[in-house]
Structure formats: C-alpha cells, structure tokens
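Lab notes, practical 5.
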Amino acid sequence: MKKKNVCSFVLAAAMVATLAGCGNSGASSTPAASGSASGSASAAAIKIGGIGPLTGGAATYGIATRNGAQIAVDEINAMGGMQFELNFQDDEADPEKGVNAYHTLQDWGMQLLYGCTTTGSCVNVAAETYGDRYFQLTPSASSTDVTNGKDNVFQVCFTDPGQGVTAADYVAEQGLAKKVAVLYNNGDAYSTGIATAFTAEAAAKGLEVVSNTTFPDDTNSDFSVQLADAKNNGAELVFMPIYYTPASLVLNQAKSMDYSPIFFGGDGMDGILTMEGFDTTLAEGLMLMTPFNASDAGAADFVSKYQAAYGETPNQFAADGYDCIYAIYAACQKAGITAEMGHEDVCEAMIEAFTASDFSVDGLTGAGMTWGTNGEVSKAPVVVKVENGAYATL
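Output from the prediction step:
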C-alpha cells in the first residue's frame, strides 16, 4: 500500500500560536458586503473564489461556510509559505445570482473556486466552471447533479443518495422502528434526492414506509396534514430530510397534536438548536446525520477559534468550509500550485491531485477523506441525538 499524503488539521492548528487576522478579515457572523476578502494574504497569494448566501433565507449556511473557510485561510497564511486570498460573493441562494457572482470572481482573477454553498446555485455555476476549466470544490452542495459529467467539480459533503441510504441502513440496523414515515420538500433537489434514496433502501431493509408526504417549499408553515397521515398510519419514526426552519415548525405542530415518534433528519437540519426563537426542548430526542459535532473533543480548537471570532458555536457547515480550504491546501501542496499559474493549469493539476491514489485528508468532518473521479467524497457518517439541548454522538 502506498503511503498516503495526509494533511492533518490538528497538527496544522497546533503550529499556529494565534489566529492571524481572523477578527479583521471581513468575515463576520452577520451578512457582509459582497466581495469581502482576507486582508492577511500577500500579493503572491493564490486567489480562491467563494460563493454562497450571505443574505436571504439561507444566509445561515453561507455565512457559516465562509466563516469556517476564513479561519482556515488565516491559519494557513500564518504558517508562512503558501498564501491564500479568499473573496466570497453573496448569491442569496439564487442560481442566477450565483452565476453573476462567478463572473465577478472571474474578473477579480480567481484561480479556483470554493463553493457554491447551495445546490441550486452550484449546479448552474458548475456548468460554467466546467466549460471555463476552473477547479471547484463545494462544501455543502450535495446533489449528484453538481458533479455529474464534470471532472473538475468535487464535494466535501455527502451526496444526497448517500445520505438517504445510510440513514435507512442506520434505522434498520439499530432497530429504531419498523413503520416509518417520510416527509420531504418536493421543490428542493436536496430533500427529494435524500428522500427517494431513503425510501428505496428502507424497503430493501425490511422497513415499512407507511406514509410518504411532501410540501412545496421551505416557506410552508402548516404540516398538520402530513403529520396526521404519519400518526394515523402508525409511523414510529418520521424521516425528514429537510432544513431546520420547516423542521422547527414540524416539531412544534407534532407536540400540539400529541404525536411523539422518533424524528430523524439529515445534515440540513444541523443548526436547529441555535435557531433564533426556537424552543430547544421541542428537539429533545431528535436524531440527525451530520459529519460534525462541536461537542467532540477533536473539534475543541476550531470551536474555540470560531467562538472567539464570531461569537457563536460553529455548525456542520462551518466545519465543511474549514475542511474545504484545508483540502485545497493539501492538494495545492501536492500539485505544486503557485500564484502565477493560470486557472486552466491549476484545474488540471488539482484534478490529478484530488484523484490520486495516495491523496487523503484528515478533517473536522471526516478522517481519511478521499475522492473518486466522480467528485464524490468517501468518509464515515456520524449520527447525533439531541440530549439536554446539545448534540450527543451515537
């Protein structure tokens, strides 16, 4: 077996005595103006573009990935040697604005792209980066449509089908329920992809899907019909591959209906405990798949730095952003990327590095992460349960 080229984040973080410039980098816990970039990079920095929502309904995700990425950039720059400059543009989770942001970054001189944060924007932007030959690594756009047919687009997050299959396997193997309900957003590719895969795998593992209901978008506010269908059909577990905003309403309405099955979600539900105005007691017992738990000992250094810089506890999306930058760093080192290289040459060299048999990255969201030629990441999933208002890794 060949020796793996591993970028150890724990070791890298230990080399940094202080977090260089993080609080003054232009990245904050509140939406920043488009085009904010690290002030700690040198003139010879490799230019990394970023795209995600900093305003609008999905801003929580974009802000978190950007903040996590900025911490990584500042750590790397403080080490000396290779330097990065991050320019993160707001797309409001709108695909058209995502493409506009991409063009802005092209004009800036971007050499490779970190993002997009959301699937809709990422699908559109990935079509552009494929044609223009920019290397692209997304922290959280999980649809297979993002990478399908594009040799230059890679993911740090699990794919939607992968999450669905893994969730169904876990429910069956742990004996959590025999009768399950599925509740998903049929207007969202992320939610639909996970739900479809879960339903198929559940049947294959002997689980009975007694209720399969949908809603049209994340602004939906009434889930009484869907919950009544699950309850009346005896569902012992409700699988909800949805984001935490609608999930918070589901949990509240289930309590008012005196319906208390096991609720199980995907990584998009991460952040529900820090949602403003949400009664966290409603989430007690909630289970979800997430590659990151801020309470784990191995995350302590990152969590401490994030809290110091942004005044809050990082969620999975922040950890995804952090891992993205360190994966890019490891590949840049392996490929010998320099600030003088054109984006086409950077792209080809990064593809070769990411798909090499001896390339592996240890991150906050997974140890020994590797990538296939289809752009998908391989790493072990983590299931957490809300206990006493905090995540407990199972």
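Observations recorded by the TA: Residues 59-79 form the longest helix (21 residues). Confidence is low (pLDDT under 50) at residues 1-42.
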